[in-house]
Amino acid sequence: MSTPQELAHSQPPLLYPPYKSTIPRAPAEPMIQVPRSFADLAAPLFGHLPIGGTDNDLTRQHPGEPLGERIVVAGRIADEDGRAVPDTLVELWQCNAAGRYFHARDDHPAPLDPNFGGAGRTLTDANGIYRFVTIKPGAYPWRNHHNAWRPAHIHFSLFGTSFQSRLVTQMYFPNDPLFPYDPILQSVPDEAARQRLVSQFDLALTEPEWALGYRFDIVLRGRHSTPFEGRV
Amino acid sequence: MTRDAGRPVATPSQTVGPFFHFGLTANAALGTLAKDGVRGERIGLRIRVLDRDGPVPDAMVEIYHADAEGQYGQAHFDGFGRLPTDGDGTCVFETIRPGAVSTRADGAQAPHVNVCLFARGLLRHVYTRIYFSGDAALDEDPLIALVPPARRSTLLASQPSGEPAVWEFTIRLQGEGETVFFAL
Ligand SMILES: [Fe+3]
After folding, report:
1. Which residues of B touch A11 (CB under 8 A)?
2. What distance in Å separates the CA atoms of residue B10 and residue A221, rounded to the nearest whole number?
3. Interchain CB contact of A186 with B (< 8 Å)
4. Which of A76, A100, A121, A153 is catalytic?
5. What phi and psi values does residue A193 have, to the nearest 5 degrees?
6. 3 state SS of A43
7. ipTM beyond 0.90?
8. What is the DSSP string of B130-164?
9. A223 falls in which pLDDT band (50, 70, 90)?
10. Is the pLDDT assigned to residue A227 strictly greater than 60?
C-alpha cells in the first residue's frame, strides 16, 4: 500500500499551471475525506460493455489494414499489494499513426485513416493480463503553449474493484524526446512515478515478421488504499 | 522519492483529454440505466458541468448508484452510466430514483448518486455525490454530516418547475458555489 507521501508524489495535483486547462477547472476548496467504512465505495463498479471479437485488435476493425507501425501492447493489472486484478475492463483510445484522432473536434491537419478508429476494449484474464494489437500513435500539436506537441501516447481507462481503483491514464513510449516539454506527463511530481507511465519495449511480446511489443503494467489503488489527502 | 524495492505504487492518473468520445462514450446506451425490467421511479437526471469561466463542453460524467431498494449491483440494474457533456456542459441520464443505502458501519445513507467527473484539464478525476433535495433522510446522512453546513447545498439536485420527472444537478468545478468534492 502506498503511503500518503508516496501517493502525493506519484499522482498529479489538480492545479498545475503549465497545463493551462487546469487553471479554470481545478477545484480550490478542500476535499472532504470519505471514511473507509462506507460500504458502497467498495462495491465493484460495473463497467461492462459487450466485448466483441476484434475489440482488442485495432488493426482488424475495418475492411483494410491501417497505416503505420503495428504494435502489441500488453501488461498486467495489479493492486498495490501486487495481486492480479482479473476480469477487469480495460479500455483504450488513441490517435492514428499520423497524430490525428477519429474525432470531429480534432482539426490537426494530418490525414485520417479510413481503416483506423483508434478505440479498443478487453477484459483481463485470470492472471490480470491484457493484450491489444494496434498501431503506434503519432505525436500531435495541442496549442497549450507555443510549439506544444504531445508525446505519442495511448489513453487507458480501468475500473478495478472499487471506487478508489478507478483510473484513467496515458501510456507513453520509451525515450520520447518530447517528455521534458509535456506538462501533462510532467504534472506527475515524482520521476519514478513518471517512468511508470512509460511502456517498455519487450522482445518477448514482439512477434516475428509482424509487430513490436511494448509492455505496460498498471497498478490500481485498492479498497484498503491509503486515503488520498484532499490536496489540490 | 524512493520506494521499497518491488513494492507497487499506484500508477499516476492522467487527464482523459478532449478526445475520449469515440473511445469511451460511443455507446449511447450507457446513458440509459432504466432499461426494461428495472423497478423504480423513472427520472431524468440532468447534470451540468461548469468551470470558473462557464460550461465545460468536454467533460465525461460517470454515475453509479443503488437500485430503488438501496442495493448495488443487482441483476436487474447494474447502476452504472457514462455520458459526455454537450456544448452547454450538460448530459442527461435516464435512470431511476435510488433508495436509501444501508451500511453496517454508518447507518442508512440518504439516497444518492455517486459521480466520477473526468475532463480535459482534470489531471485526476474528481468524485462527488448527488443527493435529492427535500429528502427526509438528508439530515441523518453520515457523509453530509462531514460537510461544512454552508456547502451542503452544492450536493443537492432539485426539480425544475414544469418537469416533474427531472432532477437537475450542477457541478461547479471552481469559483462561487464550488461543489463539494470528496477524497477517497
Ligand atoms: Fe491524446
Report:
1. 10, 12-13, 124
2. 6
3. no
4. A153
5. -70, -40
6. coil
7. yes
8. EEETT-GGGGG-TTGGGS-GGGGGGGEEBPPTT-T
9. low
10. no
Catalytic hit among A70, A155, A166, A223: A155
Catalytic residue among A16, A19, A140, A172: A140
Name which of B103, B126, B146 is nearest A39 (Cβ-Cβ). B103
Question: In this structure, are residues B83 and B31 in contact, taking their beta carbons and an 8 Å threshold?
Answer: yes
Assess if residue B183 is contained within a domain: no
In a domain, B180, yes or no: no
The CATH number linked to B117 is 2.60.130.10
Residues in Cβ contact with B123 at an 8 Å cutoff, skipping those fewer than 6 apart: A12, A13, A14, A16, A19, A22, A184, A187, B13, B14, B15
- Residue B121's domain comprises 15-172
Instruction: Identify whether B184 is part of a domain.
Output: no
Q: What is the arithmetic mean of pLDDT over A154-177?
A: 94
Summary count for chain A: helices (H), strands (E): 3, 12
Quote the pLDDT of residue B69: 93
Task: Give the residue with greater pLDDT, B105 vs A26.
Answer: A26
pLDDT at A87 over 80: yes
Q: How many domains does chain B have?
A: 1
Domain membership of residue B1 (yes or no) is no
For chain B, positions 57-86, list CB contacts with chain A under 8 A. Answer: 58, 64, 66, 72-73, 78-80
Q: How many angstroms is it from A145 CA to the middle of ligand 1?
A: 16
Q: Is the pLDDT of residue B1 over 50?
A: no
Give the mutation candidate from B78, B101, B123, B172 for the A interface (greatest A CB count, under 10 A). B123
Residue A136 CA, ligand 1 centroid: distance in Å: 13
CA of A140 to the centre of ligand 1 (A): 8
Q: Which of A44, A166, A192 lies closest to B1 in CB terms?
A: A192
- A46/B104 touch (CB, cutoff 8 Å), yes or no: no
Active site residue A146: no
Count of C-beta atoms within a 10 Å radius of residue B46:
17
- All three cell numbers of B132, joined, read 435529492
pLDDT at A232: 39
Q: Residue A226 has what pLDDT? A: 60
Looking at residue A59, its pLDDT comes to 97
Per-residue pLDDT reduced to its tens digit, A8-61: 788 999 999 999 999 999 999 999 998 877 755 655 565 566 788 899 999 999
Mean of per-residue pLDDT scores for chain A: 90
